[in-house]
Design a protein that fits this description.
about 800 residues, alpha/beta, 6-stranded mixed sheet, 29 helices, about 30% helix, excision nuclease, cytoplasm, nucleotide-binding, repeat
Length: about 800
Amino acid sequence: MTRATRQDAPSAAPHAAADHHDLIRVHGARENNLKDVSIEIPKRRLTVFTGVSGSGKSSLVFDTIAAESQRLINETYSAFLQGFMPTLARPEVDVLEGLTTAIIVDQQRLGADPRSTVGTATDANAMLRILFSRLGDPHIGSPNAYSFNVPSVRAHGAITVERGNAKTVRQSFTRTGGMCPHCEGRGTVSDIDLTQLYDDSKSISEGAFTIPGWKSDSWWTVRLYADSGFLDPDKPIRDFTEQEMRDFLYREPTKVKVEGANLTYEGLIPKIQKSFLSKDREGMQPHIRAFVDRAVTFTACPECEGTRLSEAARSSRIGELNIADACALQITDLADWVATLDEPSVAPLLAALRHTLDSFVEIGLGYLSLDRPAGTLSGGEAQRVKMIRHLGSSLTDVTYVFDEPTIGLHPHDIERMNGLLLRLRDKGNTVLVVEHKPETIAIADHVVDLGPGAGTGGGTISFEGTVAGLRASDTLTGRHLDDRATLKKDVREPTGALEIRGANRHNLQDVDVDIPLGVLTVVTGVAGSGKSSLIHGSVPKSDEVVSVDQSPIRGSRRSNPATYTGLLDPIRKAFAKANGVKPALFSANSEGACPNCKGAGVVYTDLGMMAGVSATCEECDGKRFEASVLEHHLGGKDISEVLAMPVTEAEEFFREGEARTPAAHRILTRLADVGLGYLTLGQPLTTLSGGERQRLKLATHMADKGGTYVLDEPTTGLHLADVDQLLALLDRLVDSGKSVIVIEHHQAVMAHADWIIDLGPGAGHDGGRVVFEGTPAELVAKRGTVTGEHLAAYVGG
């Protein structure tokens, strides 16, 4: 081995120009609510961005710095490749200097495709398939033979090869896939309750269908069945002949002509399966999800026993395990099994697989299994799964951007996450973290605090410097950084109990527990200990139970708080009544829309592979409504001025006087109660932060009539100062006679509870048991669990 000798000679001149690029410089950032923000962020350091929810953290970090880095990288590709990539517009900023490649690790859920699992979302499944294709006994084929996403294909026939003298030859083709042919790789089969699809005492002409969206005048559905020629549309469905019933329910796709249009007729069962059952339940709109829950029963596929794999794929084994068994193991156990394999012919593959599985364990996700559906992961779990591919990366001088990486983590797990962030920094990377937790703020090299308020009250730099400087500053974050909740002296007495017996969903080990009613109950424990399995799997679903989970709010840029909460309906009716016109005029998605921009307020110009251009509509000046609509007033304001109001101003506007609208005022009061008083009524949902969206969902559900509220980590995205407001809201719910059950890790919420149920002691098969139930004071006094230790340290007990 030879090594080049190095002769150090004094440089003729210092590399001042190169050293000048040790900072990321932002000048004049105006994205969303940012107000000409200028800042210099040190490279190869850990910088934490703090501030109340809606203060502009994500606008600065994600929508400005990370977005411009990605846009510049995309521009290095050829125009052909750019045509297949998302087009990104340049952020509203004057100057951005010193950018490096940005790797974004956000809270977006992993793909909700029914076939997507933890294994397919990472490289683990692909490596396992290769491993079994090399070592599996009996050998059944290539890695595709072990994939539940690949069906087996057989074909034979004549083909013509046009080369020189064209000639026809006989060919056969075979591909062995691992997909179970019965459930098509989904692991479940569905049984449809026909009584939920139609009323058989009525005819199709009389509106027999009870499927959401299938109205009696919908020509593309109901008229298709009525005019297909296969059925008598005026005969009650119960009187159909055997042939009519077969055509009605099961007929294969057939071309028909309806009202001069060529359409495809298909039996009701396959049509329902394609339009509803091929989609992931978690991604459905609430009313569609409720219909599917009523009409469809999902059971494990009887042929593959829920493994998704064909019989051949399940017959091939390494030792005593087939690939389905391996994917069903808890990842910690799977890592131990892989470590026992010693086969030189696949040594590099085994090393890579061990590293991936060890990364799962290191990041605190060892309790998962590779066959866990990706759509069931929480936002925090999804973010940590994305982190796995970066843990062993050899890249340096990269900018890693994290969005609240401690979401869903117990205080015990936050220490481990902090260590991972520091490791990324110590490899020479720039780490930018948007975070609220004091434990993560404390490890920062540099802190940027945005504020001073939220929405229009934020968008400026309140402080930048060290953690000690933030603590000494007079900013909202600085004042609350050392806040500590105190234990309650007196707790409420329960009015009853919800009995759970023999709960065994996922990792729960026949749990028996009584959840007190009429009080604030907190269910806690380390990540993966079984909290969500216990509450979401055991608390009965009924009209009496209002569940506010972490599923994302779906909506386009046309959706806003007014449309999502139903606030726009009473506002439109009030405008219509005051002016003697139709309510539809006051909707930017209906008759009142500006004809030029179609109610969007902006006109988009698509430039192919280049970033599209959006310009404020010249016709309506961005107000979204037709000019004639804006001539109608309520309380001296037109509809565009009302939608531009913040919630607090609108609450006062609709409280009394000419504009008094009790229905609108009630919704606005709920929005203010959850801390969203700064949002404007017409602000697009796509611009809201994660915490804002969850509180918007909470405000909407507060109108429900249920007596029990189940909240899943409501402190997600909340600033330290906002937690007090949330606790006050929970108190008001309990004092009004409601029962509130909160799945939570935040020590302030634990300290404020009337009753705590702690699960553990570990995660996965090391958890699933109730390790404590009682008052917070008793938990602190005993300190017998990990939660008790951290809560005692928090309250100074």
